[in-house]
């Protein structure tokens, strides 16, 4: 889709076309968003697995799952947010806007990490086949 939309932007619009400027505004940063998303996902997932595995050795008990889950997720999501927002938006928007995007995105991910822990404990109780 990213490639297709970049090709669409290359077409010369009709002189009565009123949407070209809006399309250019929206889709001109699409490659940055796609690249940022892929890079952030790769780094954050590998980091999350590595940290969770490390913490499982330090905190092996079942009742310590919340430590492993929250710490690994919060650290990896911090990296995810930093990488994504930097690649996608740094230099596109003013620094004040970038900081606001970064912090609001991370705060939401942080809260979700806390709220998903009880569901992790419930999932661990499912029978293994």
UniProtKB/TrEMBL annotation:
Pfam families: Vut_1. The chain crosses the membrane at residues 33-55, 75-93, 99-123. It comes from the Bacteria. Keywords: Membrane, Transmembrane, Transmembrane helix. Signal peptide: none annotated. The keyword Protease does not apply. This is Queuosine precursor transporter. It comes from Cytobacillus oceanisediminis. The lineage of its organism: Bacteria, Bacillati, Bacillota, Bacilli, Bacillales.
């Amino acid at each position: 889709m990213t490639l297709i939309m970049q090709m669409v932007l290359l077409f010369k619009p009709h002189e009565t076309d009123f949407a070209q400027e809006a399309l250019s505004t929206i889709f001109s940063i699409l490659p940055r968003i796609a690249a940022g998303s892929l890079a952030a996902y790769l780094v954050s997932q590998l980091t999350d697995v590595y940290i969770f595995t490390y913490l499982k050795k330090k905190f092996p008990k079942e009742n310590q799952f919340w430590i492993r889950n929250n710490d690994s997720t919060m650290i990896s999501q911090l990296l995810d947010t930093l990488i994504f927002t930097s690649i996608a938006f740094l230099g596109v928007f003013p620094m004040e806007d970038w900081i606001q995007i970064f912090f609001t995105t991370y705060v939401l991910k942080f809260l979700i990490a806390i709220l998903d822990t009880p569901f992790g404990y419930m999932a661990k109780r499912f029978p293994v086949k």
